[in-house]
Amino acid sequence: MMDTEPTDRELVARVAESGDEDAFRKLYRRHTPGLFRFVGAGAGRAAAEDLTQEVWVRAVKGLRKFRGESAFKTWLFGIAVNCCREFARGQESERRVTLTSEGGGPHVGRQSAEGSIDLERALDTLPSGRLQVFLLHDQEGYTHEEIGEILDIEVGTSKSQLFKARAALRDFLGAVRRPEKGAI
Questions:
Q1: How far is CA 33 from CA 40, 80, 169, in A?
Q2: Percent of the chain scored above 70 by pLDDT?
Q3: Residue 33 phi/psi, 5° resolution?
Q4: What's the pTM?
Q5: Closest to 148 measured CA to CA, from 163, 129, 165
Q6: Cβ neighbours of residue 174 under 8 Å, at least 6 residues apart?
Q7: CA distance 138 to 123
Q8: Rg, the chain, Cα only
Q9: Are residues 46 and 135 in the same domain?
Q10: Same domain, 82 and 152
């Protein structure tokens, strides 16, 4: 007889009921890579570790509130979306204070690390709503119904945001790869 991995619901129940550390570790290992990619793309690599940790802290604190109406991963990514939104609001507030105190001009988007690939730069150009839908759908494999639940948007909005995100990425990547006239 083969051992089967416990489901997320089984692991969640074990953590919620008895604080089972082994069950928590399994949940953590199962979901952290996707969470890290998601928050890193939404908030930047520098903030990804802290935000991923914050998602888990909030998840553990609120685990008894998880009713199982959706998949645990969906619930967890909902927490991640909220953490990213709070982070973005803080960054915007911090940026306004910096611009006011330094008298500098506006800063558009995050600075990409030197040598970043074109796709990372393209993702940086997407508005946050489109970026979140794109990452949840194309990277994490969520359906539009699940994305609607996570982001509290209509299914049609999710589909529209994904369409617009893909079009913007195609345009950006096409422009980056097209040599300029007169270029050597």
A1: 10, 13, 23
A2: 78
A3: -60, -45
A4: 0.67
A5: 129
A6: none
A7: 12
A8: 19
A9: no
A10: no
